[in-house]
Amino acid sequence: MIVENTLSDAVRQAVRRLYGTELTTEQLSLQKTKKEFKGHYTLVVFPFLKISGKSPEQTANDIGKYLMDDNPDIIDDYNVIKGFLNLTLNGTCWLKLLIEINNRENFGYIDSQDNSPLVMIEYSSPNTNKPLHLGHIRNNLLGYSLAEIMKANGYKVIKTNIINDRGIHICKSMLAWQKWGNGETPESSGKKGDHLVGDYYVLFDIKYREELKRLQKDNELTREEAEVQSQLMAEAREMLRKWEAGDEETRTLWNKMNGWVYAGFLETYKRLGVDFDKIYYESETYTEGKEKVLEGLEKGIFYRKTDGSVWADLTKDGLDKKVLLRSDGTSVYMTQDIGTAKLRYHDYPVAKMIYVVGNEQNYHFRALSILLDKLGFAFGKDLVHFSYGMVELPEGKMKSREGTVVDADDLIREMTDTAREISQELGKLEGLPKEESENIIEIIGLGALKYFILKVDPRKNMTFNPKESIDFNGNTGSFVQYAYARIRSVLRKAEEQNISLSNEITAKTQVTEKEEMLIRSLSEFPAVVKEAAETYSPALIANYVYELVKEYNQFYHDYTILREENAGVRNLRLSLSSNTAKIIKSGMSLLGIRMPERM
Predict the structure, then answer these.
(1) What CA–CA distance (Å, rounded) separates 66 from 455?
(2) N or C: which end of the chain has fewer CB within 10 A?
(3) Beta-carbon-side half-sphere exposure of residue 502 (alpha carbons within 13 Å)
(4) Shortest CA distance to 278 belongs to which of 343, 351, 334?
(5) What's CA 250's distance to the chain center, in Å?
(6) CA–CA gap between residue 8 and residue 26 (Å, rounded)
(7) Among 509, 491, 574, which residue's Cα sits nearest to residue 95?
(8) Which residues on adjacent β-strands are paired with residue 355?
(9) Are 41 and 523 in contact (CB under 8 A)?
């Protein structure tokens, strides 16, 4: 980006001097030169033809000659192919670029200002009837990474979580524990609280299906008829009604079991390395939503059916009719989201609201955007649904009610165990103290998990294979971490040998083609960070870092560093190594991945 800006300024000056005209941003198109042609950057001159009054070739030659004459410290050579001017930069330009990268500690990042827009990002959004699972892991990693990327682009960011702590699904867990729990607690069972509550959610479904089969068999009913007569489901609905009515006994049980779940969630979040600036609870926001819905009803925005339920007619907006309050007055998810939006808008001066939610909720967020706009919320039309694809295992789809989900805690444990086994097989941690080696194993295991998930375009469905994610070759977190650790080892050896790490580079140092390519790769980091924010894609960061590591590994293979006798060349290569490590670490930190100093 630095080089492009320098070249753009030079081109603007050339056109101004040659043709007496100021270029617009739309007229100036500067691209990387295709590999089959000589040059680093290509200027498209077709937009200048009306200005120059000449042919494409003549115009390109005019500009190329001017650039070489006026900018000898930047342009080494040029060639023209029809309306394309290919520019070759000289070595001094690349050296200056490397020095600039080296002198900027947070290269690629933009600091936020007092007037920077505030972006709120909602992610995680778990239910308190079950523990976090593999789907939640993708959600949390995407949300956290997106927040870091937005901050790197100069935005102020508030990370929020809405915990769905009420509703019929919560009552199912509560009722099952009440009926068959025998007073079991996390302490008495040795289970994490979220796991314990999740077990009772599964148990409810087992008992419910048994009841339906019994009703169908004994009374010759269809499944639909049996569901209507289900005593267990009727009890769950009654518990929800009591909860909304503020029944003390029901609320006490609810507080106790939710407390178990919150403690379990916190433990998993800490292990994953994700956090939140503000947590909202559906139990606190749904009443706000009901008030806004009733307010909309009074204003004629919504309507009430004869059974007492409240609806929104969105057919003119290309959707259908949407229930907002059930006939018994209880709320639905949409009601809660309206209430949460109201509280957030009240709490913060939100410029952009981003919801990180799977693509199965695309319709929901289209409807929410329209409803918020109808209710007068300024950000309604502009809310962003960061819609991501589902994540599955090679074995297939997960089902939480049947207890076939991949538990987040189990997966994290499996990843660290696998990292330990592979590291021991390869002998990568031999001789390290146990505490240090265990810390590195944690970094490798979680790094592999995060990288494997985040390197995929978030909009695509993906299959997560734990065995493939930890590999010290290929596009994996372990491969990137190992390359970083190797660079850090080179820099430590330089210090041990009293070789200067001052990164002093002289203008006389000759830059080879591979060194030039590595500097160019480093310089592209700011543009990648910017594009990742614009497209909401952490995958761009992951794959940029992977390509950078491959570029460095080729350089490392082809050139000596510490044994290089020419001090200027050695300093150049140490600087290249140091700055590659810096940008690898910066890029991976945007993915929430820590880097080991040794492996």
Answers:
(1) 43
(2) N
(3) 8
(4) 343
(5) 38
(6) 12
(7) 509
(8) 122, 385
(9) no
3-state secondary structure of 360: helix
CA distance linking residue 322 with residue 324, whole number of Å: 6
User: Do residues 335 and 324 make contact, with C-beta atoms less than 8 angstroms apart?
Assistant: yes
SS (H, E, C) 514-580: HHHHHHHHHHCHHHHHHHHHHHCCHHHHHHHHHHHHHHHHHHHHHCCCCCCCCHHHHHHHHHHHHHH
Task: Return the H-helix or E-strand segment holding 226.
Answer: helix 223-229
pLDDT tens for 118-155 read: 999 999 999 999 999 999 999 999 999 999 999 999 99
Q: How far is CA 517 from CA 372, 548, 559, in A?
A: 50, 10, 14
- What is residue 156's three-state secondary structure? strand
Adjacent-strand bridge partners of 31: 42
Report yes or no: 442 and 579 within 8 Å, Cβ to Cβ. Answer: no
Which DSSP category does 162 fall into?
E
Task: State the Cα–Cα distance between residues 574 and 497, nearest whole angstrom.
Answer: 13
Q: Which of 335, 360, 355, 336 is nearest to 135 (CA)?
A: 360
Helices (H), 375-512: 408-426, 434-454, 466-469, 477-496
What's the Rg (C-alpha) of the chain?
30
- Give me the helices (H) in 299-407, please: 333-347, 362-374
**97-111, 439-453, 504-518: range with lowest mean pLDDT:** 504-518
**β-pair type (321-325, 310-313):** antiparallel
The rounded distance, in Å, linking the Cα atoms of 57 and 39 is 17
Residues 6 or more apart in contact with residue 430 via CB below 8 angstroms:
none
CB atoms within 10 A of CB 465: 10
- What pLDDT is attached to residue 402? 45
**Predicted pLDDT at 125:** 94
Cα distances from 322 to residues 282, 313, 505, in angstroms, run: 19, 6, 66
Q: Whose CA is closest to 28, among 100, 85, 93?
A: 85
Six token digits for residue 228: 């209507």
| CB of 231 closer than 8 Å to CB of 211 | yes
Our separate counts of H helices and E strands in the chain read: 22, 14
Measured between alpha carbons, how far is 323 from 338 in angstroms, rounded to an integer?
13
Q: How many CA atoms lie within 13 A of 251 on its CB side?
A: 8
Q: What is the pLDDT of residue 394?
A: 74
Chain segment 91-126, per-residue pLDDT in tens: 788 888 898 899 888 999 999 998 999 999 999 999
Which DSSP string do the residues of 262-320 spell out, in sequence order?
HHHHHHHHHHHT---SEEEEHHHHHHHHHHHHHHHHHTTSSEE-TTS-EEEE-GGGTS-
